[in-house]
Amino acid sequence: VTHSIPACIGSMTINGKQLDNESPVSIFAVNKCYEIVQEGTFFDGSGFAALVREGYKVRSDVNITLEFRTTAVHGVLLGVSSAKVDAIGLEIVHGKVLFHVNNGAGRITATYEPRGTNNLCDGKWHKLQANKSKHHISLIIDGNLVHTDNPYIQSTSADTNNPIYVGGYPADVKQNCLTSKSSFRGCLRNLVLTRGQHTELFDFSRSFDLRGVFPHSCPGAEH
Predict the structure, then answer these.
(1) Would you give the end-to-end CA distance of the chain in angstroms?
(2) Which InterPro entries would you find in this protein's record (predicted)?
């Protein structure tokens, strides 16, 4: 077994003596347990999850779906970049969701801005779908579609070869399609990336680098 148990452990005794959970000698990636939890992964606003160590190749088409819940108006959702300019990025900036794509010729952005009393940072679950099909990009939030014109119609492939960073990224990593450096604070679930016939559901407990991220449980409400 190479990964930690996604669970809560309490009232542990060894040889009849109860262990003191409150003042451990050392601690790493252990969060408190919540009486009310929801399915999903909790991001505490300090780090990120890194997936696909060998690099994820977006190329011409990708469809990203996920659900998020947050009360913060800024935060990185997802970024996949390259050593060049090719990249994709999803982020929340000033309460808006932005989907950026650069196929090599220049960055284009689809922006979803909530209307009226709608608020994406209300601590409730919201569904997101971001789609890149060659030079076309679109964003669907809670069933509302936004798409944008792309002047660079000859450029169709985002030739990425870096890991997928979710919820943030390390300070020494370049992200060509993210404007924010703020790590996401809140919960994510059901992250699925589809290329053609190949669909992947990502389990954050399998991340090769996990900082400030607690897989498999979200606090039932913001605390």
Answers:
(1) 32
(2) ConA-like_dom_sf, Laminin_G, Neurexin-related_CASP
